[in-house]
Amino acid sequence: MSATPDATPGAEPDADAGGVEELEDAYLEGDRTFEPGTARAAFSHRTFRIVYLGAFASNIGTWMQNVVLGALAWQMTKSGLYLGLVTAAQLGPLLLFSVVGGMIADSYDRKRSLLALCLQQAAFSLVLALVTVPSHPSEALLLVVVLIIGIGNALYAPIFSAVVPILVPRRDLPGAISLNSVQMNASRVIGPIIGAPIYAAFGPSWVFVLNAASFGFVLLALNRVTLPAPKPTGAQGLHRLLEGFQAARDNRVIGQCLIVIAVFSFWCLPWIPQMAAIADHNLDIDSKSAAFGILYGCFGFGAVLGALSIGTIFTSASKERLTRIGLVGFAGMILVFGTMHAAAPAFVAIIVLGAVYFAVITSLSTVLQQSLDDSVRGKVMALWIMGFGGMVPFGGIVGGIMIEQFGITPMIVVCSIVSLGLAWWADLLPTRPPGVLAREPAGARPLP
Predict the structure, then answer these.
(1) Which of 2, 46, 78, 188 is most enclosed, with most CB atoms within 10 A?
(2) Which of 168-172, 277-281, 438-442 has the highest mean pLDDT?
């Protein structure tokens, strides 16, 4: 299937060019029109729907594997440091290899690249299943296999992040970003709820086998569409790798967004890779239990609500202002959840925490994406992924050390203070001459 004519940001649909797909869309949607920028408007585009649903199904398997890896690492060692190392092997490659993935996204055939990397991750998920068959798996071998999977994901993520926004017109970009955040976090809900009971009943290997199988959904989806070709910029060699950094240096909004996500991920999110330790010490919830899967699922459910709110309730609201308000809300809610010692209210608190957390991420991502030129989208999104995913595991290692040296509460207090500091610093506004007060309209800030 070919990409729809409106797959290019900023392009208006051509009444004569859509053919069968546009007629089918009109039939499926009943000729309804949707408010531009909403989640419903983004989902009305056929190619976006196909890729989105395939990625959603695949990510459920990924989060089954993620939550079980954390629980397995804790059960094997009862060490916050080893738990942090497993997370670093899983997500740390995002810090080193995302730039390469971004260059691939803006330079080579995106569909073939995504297909190859899906197959690589599926294959090594099967290897991970074999490694964890023994009752006492090798800690070193587990780290190596998780690292290889992490490298594949680090190359895949920037390519996929560059593809999603160009499957809808620019006017519907906020809705597409909101929906993409929803599927990422809905998979956090469904994955742990499925994975934790399977782990408890049958062991970790079956979870990893199911994750390998889940890549079939995204492979099927990609084979049904044609993705837009990348726009060449003319840069060669090392310059192609560095174009994202150049964009961040030249555009204040892009630079601030990337700094905020990197600092926030490192200093405010170490509690996520340390979730098993927090559940064990503070809430008396065993990480190898259905209750832990539900706790993780509640966090994901809250994140879904937060992400979806940006593409529905807050469609017309300033995403810059929402980001700053959300950072303040996060500072308060992490203190509430991180200092609780009763399990029942913690399930409610983590839903609210997840909602505030991903309202921040979705708002900030929307501000960034609307500031990007498509020719460097992959390279800049690689830097976003480096900050968002690549910093979390190293923050998790620092968090593990803090827990072992000082306890959980000091780590939580640091998360809260840094979030407040970012809310004060990050105005996310473009530089303008003195005396000019008018705001540029969203989406109208091309790269210099």
Answers:
(1) 188
(2) 277-281
Distances (CA, A) of 46 to 23, 178, 243: 11, 17, 31
Give the orientation angle of helix 93-107 with respect to helix 377-385, to 10 degrees: 170
At 133, give phi and psi (nearest 5°).
-65, -45
Asked whether residue 55 is assigned to any structural domain, the reply reads: yes
Is residue 8 domain-resident?
A: no
Asked whether the CA dihedral 281, 284, 290, 294 is positive or negative, the reply is negative
For 185-227, write each residue's pLDDT tens digit. Answer: 788 778 877 888 898 888 899 999 999 999 999 999 998 888 8
Q: Give a three-class secondary structure readout of the chain.
A: CCCCHHHCCCCCCCCCCCHHHHHHHHHHHCCCCCCCCCHHHHHCCHHHHHHHHHHHHHHHHHHHHHHHHHHHHHHHHCCHHHHHHHHHHHHCHHHHHHHHHHHHHHHCCHHHHHHHHHHHHHHHHHHHHHHCCCCCCCHHHHHHHHHHHHHHHHHHHHHHHHHHHHHCCHHHHHHHHHHHHHHHHHHHHHHHHHHHHHHHHHCHHHHHHHHHHHHHHHHHHHHCCCCCCCCCCCCCCHHHHHHHHHHHHHCHHHHHHHHHHHHHHHHHCCCCCCHHHHHHHHHCCCCCCHHHHHHHHHHHHHHHHHHHHHCCCCCCCCHHHHHHHHHHHHHHHHHHHHCCCCHHHHHHHHHHHHHHHHHHHHHHHHHHHHCCCHHHHHHHHHHHHHHHHHHHHHHHHHHHHHHHHHCHHHHHHHHHHHHHHHHHHCCCCCCCCCCCCCCCCCCCCCCC
Judge whether 175 and 311 are in contact, CB under 8 Å. Answer: yes
Average pLDDT of the chain, as a whole number = 82
- Domain span at residue 363 reads 20-228+236-425
Residue 107 lies in a domain: yes
* Structural domain count of the chain: 1
In a domain, 387, yes or no: yes
The pTM of the full predicted model, rounded to 2 decimals, is 0.73
Reported as half-sphere exposure (CB side, CA atoms, 13 A), residue 276 has a value of: 31
Please report the pLDDT score of residue 381 as a whole number.
Answer: 86
Q: What is the CB neighbour count within 10 angstroms for residue 31?
A: 8
CATH classification at residue 101:
1.20.1250.20
